Amino acid sequence: MISFYIAIFSVTIIISLVFTRIVRNEVIRRGWLDKSKDGRHFHVSPVPRLGGVAVFLTFGVATAIALTTNKFLRVLPPISFHTIFGIVLPACLIFALGLLDDIFSLGAYLKFGVQTIAAFWLYWNGFGIQRLALYSEHATLRAFIGLPLTILWVLLITNAFNLIDGLDGLSAGSALFSTVIIFAISIFRHTPLVSLLSIVLAGVIFGFLRYNFHPASIFLGDSGSLFIGFLLSALALASSQKATTIVAVAIPVVSFGLPLLDVCLSVFRRYMNNKSLFLGDDEHVHHKLIKRGFTHREAVLVLYAVAAAFGILSLTLLHGDMMIGFVLLIVGLGVWLGVQQLNYLEVYELAAVTRRLRRRKRFTANNLHIRRASESLRDPALDFAEFCHIAQSALEPIGFCGISILFPEVDIDDTFLLPLRRNGGSGYSYLWRKKIQPQWELRLELNSSSGGKLGDLCLFRAQASDPLLVDINLLDHEFRTAVCDALERAISRVPGAAVPLSKGQDGLSKVMSAGS
């Protein structure tokens, strides 16, 4: 049996080499070339884009040869043509969709609509998600659960291989690793249809890579990447039909780890930036590697290694449920470390949001400190000593280490301002953490009730790097207004002090002497 698969694989490679060369030369002769239009593409000279035609033709011819050979040699159990068409016909629909997209650039909703029809076609022919270990290991899922899950799976995998098709040979190479994994799983689970189609697809991709690896002389195009992605999603479903444990879910997910990681990062990235999910960008995993200094070839080889690692981890799950925790732990750690190295700003922002959520309780408590201080400052009998005590009780828990008040237009005796002490000129400070040198300050302008400038209030912090866990608008409005009113009342009770009034027409400030 193995020799039969090796023979089919070898014949398919030869057919793929011939068809790819013919299609490439014909497309070049007709001038149907892909030209780089934005920073998301790395090729400089025009390259043929219709490699999917060669992939589709090779797969069709090689599959027909394999089925015919098996019919005469009877190496594999008889395979129903109805069963084969349940996978191949919707795959033909996806190829036609991709070919039209290569030529006319179809809209995203139309492409998703056709892919949904193909997914429904798969489900109708028995290649859908019928059981789910997270739901029940033995009970068959009802259609209103199984069908949406099947559609979601097909859309995810089909478009994942399309999204990752950004470097020469990347999508085809990662698909080759996934195809080999599906072949190995199908041998283990004794599903000859999946084994036959997956070994044919592996031969198709292997031969195509001869012309698609960097520097590529032909691209997959949407017709190729969507066709391969759909076939892989369908073969993964078909190979899991007899499995009922959670491993049946984990193996295909892990084996498609690289394209799934890229599509998940793309959705997350565009959501965080408030951009359309269908709008392309240059922030994919392969773009990030290029920006970090990798050459085109090096980036592809690194991602091949990642795809191979995902594949090997998925194969370890064949040992049973006991391995799933270990594998998921390794995958999680690997993905986290890899994403950290790629320096996605969205990940740092999400981490910052998470930290802010954890600090929300403290944030709320600090806001309440400011609100209580604002209420206490409304006491009509408030003096400067009480003012400093209220300011310290409100601001010290937030991380402030002192305050300073600048009275450029107020004439007042220093003894009435204690515990505020003059720090030079018209500034008076009160530091409750005297041994710490302030490194950061927030300055709030103070205006009297009549509109004149009373001075400035400076709030000092010892550590500039510590987050300010308080609503800055609360400080700028409610607290600042309360401070202005409190200081104005306190100054008005000091003999001989002067409080600024509103500016006159000549722009000069007028003052009112306290007690006059």
Count helical runs. Answer: 17
Q: Which whole number gives the mean pLDDT?
A: 86
Number of domains: 2
**Which value, in Å, is the CA radius of gyration?**
35 Å
Q: How many strands appear in the DSSP assignment?
A: 9
| Low-pLDDT residue spans | 501-516
Structural shape: elongated
Query: How would you write the strand order of the largest sheet?
Result: 4-5-3-7-6
Relevant terms:
single chain; 516 residues; alpha+beta; Beta-Lactamase; 2 domains; five-stranded antiparallel beta sheet; two-stranded antiparallel ribbon; 17 helices; 60% helix; elongated; disordered C terminus
Commentary on this structure:
The protein is an alpha+beta fold. It has 2 domains: 2-34 and 42-354, no CATH class; 369-513, Beta-Lactamase (2-Layer Sandwich), CATH 3.30.450. It is 60% helix and 9% strand. The chain has helices at residues 2-30, 51-73, 81-104, 108-124, 143-163, 170-189, 192-212, 221-239, 247-255, 257-272, 285-291, 296-316, 324-342, 345-358, 360-376, 384-395, 472-492, and strands at residues 33-34, 47-48, 400-406, 421-422, 427-431, 440-447, 453-461, 498-503, 509-513. The protein has a 5-stranded antiparallel beta sheet, covered by helices on one side. A two-stranded antiparallel ribbon has the order 1-2. Strand 6 and strand 7 (453-461) form a beta hairpin. Helix 3 runs antiparallel to helix 4, helix 5 packs across helix 8 (221-239) and helix 7 runs antiparallel to helix 8 (221-239). It is elongated and about 115 Å long.
